[in-house]
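step 4 of 6: structure.
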Amino acid sequence: MTLTDRLTRWRYHYVPDHLLGEILSKRWIDNAVPVLFLGLTLSVFGALIPGFFGADNMSNLLRQWGEFGLVVLALTIVMAAGGIDLSVGSTFALGNIAALALIGVADLPLPLVIAGTLACGALVGLINGVLVGYLRLRAFLTTLVTLIIVRALVDSILLSYAVPIAAAFPDSEPWFFMGEGSLWGTPFSVVVALIAAAGLHLVLTRTRAGWHVLAVGGSRRSAHNVGIPVRRVICLTYVASGTLAAGAGLLFASRLGAAGADIGVGMEIAALTAAVLGGNSLGGGRSSAAKAVIGSVIVMIMVNSLVRMGLTSGANSLLLGTVLLIAVAVDVRWMRNKHKFLSKVYVSPTWADLPVAPPTSAGSPYALNDRLAPVQSIGLGEIDGPEDVILDADDHIYVGNRIGDIIRFLAPDYTRQEVFAHVGGRPLGMAFDSNGGLVVCIGGMGLYRIDKDRSIHKLTDETRRSLFSVIDDSRLRLADDLDIAPDGRVFFSEATVRYEMHEWPVDCLESRGNGRIICYDPRDGSTRTVLKNLVFPNGICMCHDGQSFLFAETWACRISRYYYDGPKAGRTEVVIADLPGYPDNINRASDGRYWLALVGMRTPAFDLGLKMPGFRRRMVRRVAPDEWLFPNINTGCVLRFDEAGEVHETLWDRRGENHPMITSMREHKGHLYIGGISNNRVGRLPLPGADPDWTGMTSYWGQK
Amino acid sequence: MIAAIRCSLDSFFGRGEAAVTLPPLDGALRANRRLDDEGLRRPLPGVTALAVAEGGLYAAAERSLHRLHPDHSWQKVAEFEAEIAALSQAPSGGMVLALSDGQILTYGLAGTGVPRRSALRGITDLAVTEDGTLWITCGSDRHGAEDWQRDLMLRGAGGSLWRLAAAEAQPQQIAGGLAWAGGVMACREGVILSESWRHRLLRLSPGGAREVVLGDLPAYPGRLSATGDGAWLSMFAPRSQLVEFVLREPAYCHRMLTEVARDYWIAPRMRSGQSFYEALQNGAVKQLGLLKPWAPSMSAGIVLRLDAGAQPLFSLQSRADGRSHGVTHAVEADGFLHVAAAGDEVVITLSGDAVKGDAA
């Protein structure tokens, strides 16, 4: 190994490049920038203003934030559904004046005052909602008009009732408590805002109503198509917004008791700035209560700190406007480019070096031949991608296909086929359990069992999440192949936790240990991960000792043996370290040895690329996906090996006419049945000299 | 300084010089499979060059010259000491041949002329003008014609154009520093030659001025053969994003050239998909037992018809799943177009619309 190779290996061993893509693919990454900005704001103003972190300043800030936060939450709800509500400032003022009039002039009891004030806000919201939601007016113009009308309404109430309101002195303890009281040392308004934020969080993330709101914001047309009442949802977001804004006005009224003409003026800009700054997308569908809280805290701190530093209110508006512009620009650019960026950085190749590939020339156990030439085709052109093939006691053939069916070809001539079960997902490896139930690994779903009566049972679809993993690896993404131990335990491989079914070959560009082997125990229904960091673990086959199984690691071109019981329990031994191609499924042969499918062959150019991760990374970024250098999975073969790792024979389809890519083979009564994940046929090859009565069922479970 | 900064920025972002984008196969080069679907196919192992002379079709294959018999079989008429590097019809009747060891000789019913020995190596094409002057292109001064892939991957620029007047013994260099001169043709204003690795056709006027007449081709241009009102351009291999990318990765490219056998390089070739040791690309994975025609491929067959101004009119192609790859020569005579597909070792004869270009 050259020095450069060694340095490259260290570099890729110790720098986890793949985490960047994984972090970027998380939803919470949208909040990261606002949180950083909050930290920046705190440190800047904390350094500039003496006593910034003092109790007085904090308590004052908090109390103001309670009301402002409610208004931002109100706006967030509307933005989540893809709308905008400019009338929140006016509604806030209306809530303030309504509360003061109801308690001071009408002299109503407090519960009625609260109900009345909220109803005022809800009414404004309803008008907005009907206009925007049902009559489909433009949200921006509509709420701009409502802003003016409600402001005019507030002014005319002020004209008539300013004097009585100013003269009245409500005699109500709870009223003052709302304004100035504290619960557990926290101002009452803050408690209300926090409860509202928590409520909004729960609604948006955990309830049907919240999902409807986000769905409408994400794509109005799709939401309509799946049956969500789009107009009603939009209308209700405005009602909620109006109610919350009026509630904020109510708190403000009880705190100051003032009825001025400038209350709530310009508040919509501050609230909008806060909402966007927090990361709520203007396009809708990407909103959360946390974003609203973060954004409102930032804006609150900025506005108050500037006032304390003695800047005029003009400068304040200027700053708010500038920040809003920047936030909107970042929001738009981020939304537009995030996927592009993610797709460029997600594939993160690592250093890999394979042993020298054995030759396929004459004299080698892998020597080329045309032994697969006499193969007969079953279901030619009628089956789409049989990854695995298995036969039952009545000689029927079972295969999965690309659209999620388990197809059964009926013995003896296999010209008739039927859908045995529709499972969805992508059926991959299969095995029969001792009762004749078909246990299937389904890509995208997990491990399932289909009984003889065609009933489908989920065995498991999750395992324990590994510590410190960024992506959630608890769900099974790509369950690949399985085998069943004599005691009924199912060992199955999950090829990769980083890619979905249809892009499995891309994992080869990484060649990192992204896969694992998992054990499902039917006795207690538990699932646990047995082996981790395997390089695309694929085929699994039980050894005859009842204590171990063989497994193939496709991109590592090696076969290993793992002991799950007995004196060597927990140990892994390499059986074949240097295959000339990429191994796929392993199955038992009638002579006590094992069949192995090679899905593709190693190529010198790709092997060289494995030692140069930077080359592969740049290729993924620069070159179109269709042009990416791939392992050669257009040519495969079948070989037979024993537990000592010796290869006894190799069967080739040299011209690749019938079986260019082979992912599985199954011996049954003197014939070999061959499947390929992107092929359109099942092959049937007579095996001269093989035991004509041997079947997999009897080999595993004995004569029944 | 600024150029260096821009260069490193380009290579970081994959822009400008570092971009691997290719011109699309559109317009005159719109993808079709007329080379596969039309015409009469006559296999000839090793065929590389063609000439129509004295009423017959001649084909050069390695060291032998073959003549087409009326019963569609090939008859060997001559064998030479070295491989035939280029072949051209002479206006006086008969043919002119260039051998890979530098000999230039005439051949006709009258027999073989006295060879003129030159020091030229790596001859790729030759053209004869009315007055008997020979124009000769050499691909590279470092690599022989058979080692063209290495010259491409090393970004060679040692190609040259030579003129050999009828009375002279030694050729005279007219132009050098070409990135593989792959073909030449005499025209009214001088000569037109194809500069393969820069994907363009150049016109050299007698005064020595170079002018790009057709640039940014999506395949590597090779031999040119004049017809009455234009020319046929054979393009021996398609360009590919992956190859363009590898060309911009000096470290990988260098190791590939030294550690990997030539047949398995990531490089264009006359015929790809022959061995499973060749690198595969994502889009070329067989689906349901089929290789898709639009799959990325290291080889293809493209013949481009040019008008009198060397602008493209239409093309005949063989796509990724085709059987006429690696077109090295196309000559037209008496309404027939003969195409030598070196990759698939076959000579295809087309007529009618395929030659005149009325229907596509």
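step 5 of 6: annotate
 - The CA atoms of residues 194 and 201 of chain B lie 4 Å apart.
 - The two ends of chain B are 50 Å apart (CA to CA).
step 6 of 6: archive
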